[in-house]
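Please, structure for the following, as tokens.
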Amino acid sequence: MTTKNHIREKIKAMPKIELHLHLEGAFTVEFLFELIQKYGGDPSVKTIQDLEKKFVFKDFSHFIETWFWKNQFFREPADFEQSTYFTLENLHNQNVIYAEVFYSPWDFEQFGLQVEAITEATLSGVQRAEKDFGIKCQLIADLCRDYGAEKAIDRFSQIIPYRDKGLIGIGLGGSEQRFPPKPFKQVYKMAKAKYFHRVAHAGEAAGPDSIWGAIKSLEIERIGHGVRAIEDPALVDYLQEKQLPLEICVTSNLKTVVFPAVEAHPIKQFFDNGLFVTINSDDPTMFGTTITDEYVLLYEKLDFTPESIKSLTINAAKASFLSDSEKQILIDKIVEFWE
């Protein structure tokens, strides 16, 4: 076996941690195909291959259009439970040992589904997967900025009862350019008071101002993406000094054309300059990637060494919202594997 193949196999086998994954973009293709059949189908999707072709995007707006298209096939709480279970089984098969994942139950209200029912079904899928596969997973509710700050407060109040049941934080996805962070200051303050962890998408579709805004207004503990910090040297210095974790998703940034090519992506520069970076898959099914593929990409295209890959995985353990003793257990597993 060549060294290159050997390293690829090591990456496949190594313990991994996922901190930025949207459940609604991480379903298995097989399960979505089942749902399409179950609910009367779509004439353009006769086979799994037809379905896979749906996830080749022309541009970002086509991606969003497809996102809403597939949402219509999730119609009962059981669909969410089963989808979560299959997603976590898939992660377990890649030796993901811990995950913090986004879910956005409000995307399905138009289909008459209750937020509470979706949340409980999703948590049930999480518990079943932990029992069957040993993978631990916790949820972060994506409040989605597109509906405004008032709506975000209503949404937050709906999820408070699940704080000790496996839902640990809030996030802010959606149209970053149109909805800057500052108006969401109040809901983030409320979340902090209720001991919810706080993350926000920033510096993906919008530039450095969006990241500064999230840091100053929302008191976030991690930044989703944050890659466009590269446009502001003072911000890069700040992130390096404060060691604020970035949840980086390379393939996602290429598919949504934040960067034109993998060589233009700043992940290597960030890592070499000592920023606190983690590697994640974002919407793996939608973008045709996996967390394993993300690490292989770093190794093959961006000159990351096995030692660097080990460091990135340890970073993810440290950036997680687990207790210090739980983090240490993950770190020990990673170190033991590489030794």
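The two ends are 20 Å apart (CA to CA). The chain has one domain: 3-30+83-338.
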